[in-house]
Amino acid sequence: MSTSAIILAAGKSTRMKSVRPKPLHEVCGRPILHYVLQACYEAGCERVMVVIGHGKDEIMAAFGHDQRITWVEQTEQLGTGHACRMCESHLKKQGDVFILAGDGPLIRGQVLQTLLQAHHDERAAASMATAVLDNPFGYGRIVRDADGEFVAIVEETDATDEQRAIHEVFPSYYCIKNDVLLQMLSQLQPNNKKGEYYLTDVYALARQAGKKVLAVQAVSADDVLSINTRQQLAEVDLIMQARIHRALRDSGVSIVDSDTVYIEADASIGVDTVIQPFSFVGCSSRIGSNCVIGPFAAIPRHSIVPEGSTIAGSMPAVTTGLGR
Q1: 217 and 256 assigned to the same domain
Q2: What does DSSP assign to residue 211?
Q3: Which residue, 6, 148, 280, 303, could crosslink 285 as a Cys pair with Cβ 3.0–4.6 Å?
Q4: Which residues contact 243 (CB under 8 A, 6 or more apart)?
C-alpha cells in the first residue's frame, strides 16, 4: 500500500512580524518547508498534499518544480481538522498518510520510518510519535490510562492543572490509515475554547470506535521545536547547524571552530578537507577532498571548489553558476 503525507502550511507569519510566508523563511539556507518535504520522501512518501493559504502563490512558485506535491488551498482558518478536510478528495481509500506541521524543519525521515514501522507491526488504525519534554508548555499532552494505553490528546488551552503536569507531548507527527482518517474527519466537532476543528480529536474518536491507537515515544526533545517567532527560527537554525557540522565531521571533514563556521544545507565537502575559523559555505556547494577553506573565506552558494584547493580570505578561486 502507498504512503502519502499531508503538510499543514496555511498559517500566517503573524508572530514572525513578516510579510514572507512562514514556510519560506530559511534555516541554514533552505526554506522551512524543504526539510519537512525531505523527511516525507525519506520515509517513502510517493506524494505529498501541502495545504496552503497565506502567501500561497509564493510558496507554490518556490516549490513548483516538485511534481510529487499536490497543492490544496484552505481559504478559511478553522483549525487543523478543517485543513485536512480540504484534502479529502485527494485521499485514497487504501494506504497510510502522515500528517505533519509545515513549521517543524527539525523533523527527521528516520523518525517517520520508525513510526510507520510500529504502525504496521502493531496493526494500528492510527498512530502518533510523541516526545517527553522537561518543559511541555504549549504542547498537547498525551493522556494514558492505568495500563499505559492512549486515551486522548489534550491541548494546552483545554487542559486541567493535572493534565498540564504531564510531560509527554504530541509534536504533530500523525500516521493514520486513509479510510480511518476520512471516517473520523466527518465526526469532528469544534467543541473547544477556540471553536476550531482539532485534528488531534481523530485519535480519541478512533479509540471510542474501538480502533487501535498507538502512541510511540520516538521524537527526541531537540527535534520538537517548531517555528512561530524569529527567536525560535534562530534556535532551530542553531540546532540544524550543529547537525550539519556533526554529519560532515563523521564523513571525514575537519571543522576547526564550530562557533565561527557557518555551513548551509546540502553542501558537499570531501574527506580530509579542513574548514578554518570565520568561514562560510553556501548551500549546494561542492568542495573537493584535501582542501583548506579559510580562515575568513566565503564560498558562495552552488560553487565548485576543486580537490586540493586552498581558499583563504577573499581569494577568487571558485567557479559559480550551477543551477539550484
Answers
A1: no
A2: -
A3: 303
A4: none
The three three-digit cell numbers of residue 141, written as one number = 499532552
User: Cα–Cα distance between 304 and 30 in angstroms, integer?
Assistant: 19
Q: Hunting for cell 562560510 — which residue is that?
A: 280
> CA-CA distance, 80 to 10, in Å (whole number)?
10
Tens-place pLDDT, residues 126-163 = 999 999 999 999 899 999 999 999 998 998 988 999 99
**Do 200 and 170 touch, CB atoms closer than 8 A?**
yes
pLDDT more than 70, % of the chain: 96
Does residue 184 sit in the same domain as residue 282? no
The CA distances from residue 278 to 95, 167, 199, 262, 294, in Å, are 49, 40, 46, 8, 7
231 in helix, strand or coil?
helix
- 90: its cell numbers: 485527494
Q: 14 and 135 share a domain?
A: yes
Report yes or no: 114 and 218 within 8 Å, Cβ to Cβ.
yes
Residues of the domain holding 314:
251-324
Tell me: the pLDDT tens digits for 35-90? 999 999 999 999 999 999 989 999 999 998 999 999 999 988 899 999 999 999 99
Give yes or no: residues 27 and 167 share one domain: yes
| Residue 35, in any domain of the structure | yes
Residue 15, SS3 per DSSP: helix
Provide the number of structural domains found in the chain. Answer: 2
Which residues are known catalytic residues?
A: 15
Cα angle vertex 173, ends 169, 174, to 5°?
A: 115
**Cell 504542547 -> residue:** 139
